[in-house]
């Protein structure tokens, strides 16, 4: 074959090869177009040598752009990434460049043409030149906005309280654990607060659980407004909340926040058409002073909160080790109190109440006492709250009624008459729907007339058990039982409840009586006496210990005097002697 024919043959082969390459390229382009058009993802190709970016038509449409509007430069694309996510995107890319990783993946938000952001999952493959330098990255964007939304919704269900929007206990403890580690590393303090809404039950009792739930939402919103951005609010359950205060330079910061919370609840909250008010009791524990674990801090803040409630509510208390002793004592009391009735350890004393003018006995108040077989006398202030908390006050209360009414019958049979018996009623007893029926049954069994009995109710009880209390008091008053309010002037909404229930006697609290020389105390005493007489109620002053107190109260028109000035609480046989002498 001559040279010309050889060249001609070679040209034919080259043309065939070019045609095959052209066909292959065409098929490749068609394949790419089919993949691009058939995929729900947006494809992209970034050439690092000139910083230009290719964006597929599908990706353009997803972002709301026409093809001609699409920026071709990577720097322009960076501007569309959410400001919060830019650092994450660039850090991931630089890590891939540095480590010569073949694959890149990152989730972030990118802005649409209309201005709102969507979440995307960006995946890409990196190409490097012979020197190991990145020259190209190609990949895809997938819209994961709905997936993110569902994930966030699921997380809210798992980690957030659906009523108040605050995080739940598990998530709170996780954050607390992380904060403790940070505080340990930085040498800082942190604080845990445990909060309880004082007298919240009254809202549910008076207005129903729907209003109660709306009230809780308002309370949570107000609490959030009182804390810092770095702090965490948690609804522990019911009407109890916890707050994490990280990165404290001093305990004073926690005290300042606690005061702010308490002050913020001095005004009413509008829920639907109702004006509702409440106060907050707060317990405070500090890391590392009171504990080095989240569980320990929360428990101690809880203990301190109960101490705040015991001391009058609407205040805050720091945990201290003395409270542990009180808790241990309470636990021991709880276990021993169950057997106290059966062991014959409980007994009653009676304190005479004296007519201020005639100095004759007009009442005897039955007061329960406990002589423990090993510990001796245990104060009612220590065991009555435990009895109420464990519902042991129900059988104990019935024991008091039975024994007090029986004793009254004996005194009447001895010829001592002209006085009534006063018996204290616990909030737990008054919450029982059948309480009035129980009292009536015991009166009938002991042969005592209802008019001989006075039921004494602490003013704060009126706040805590409105629903059943109203029914019980109405039934008892219809039978002739007298109703007395104890500790008057120390609770809330006093006039409202006097108007609602009606009372026969009002007791001036001993805190006002203890210093009758104080001008403010004098004014309070005078107003209470005036108020009581205006509604035909007798006024009793308790805690009277001096002649000066007695004389002042008598001059102001106080009707009945109770206190050590005339007599301490006496055993039944001592009362008999006192009645003989008084007669």
From TrEMBL:
Superkingdom of the organism of origin: Bacteria
All residue ranges annotated as the EAL domain in the record: 330-583
Key words, A-Z: Coiled coil
Every PAS domain range: 28-100
InterPro entries for this protein: Biofilm_reg_signaling, EAL_dom, EAL_sf, GGDEF_dom, Nucleotide_cyclase, PAC, PAS, PAS-assoc_C
Pfam family for this entry, one: GGDEF
Segments forming domain GGDEF: 188-321
Coiled coil: 8-35
Record-linked Gene3D superfamilies: 3.30.70.270, EAL domain (3.20.20.450), PAS domain (3.30.450.20)
Domain PAC: 104-156
SUPFAM superfamilies attached to this UniProt entry: EAL domain-like, Nucleotide cyclase, PYP-like sensor domain (PAS domain)
Protein name, per record: EAL domain-containing protein
Species assigned in the record: Clostridium diolis
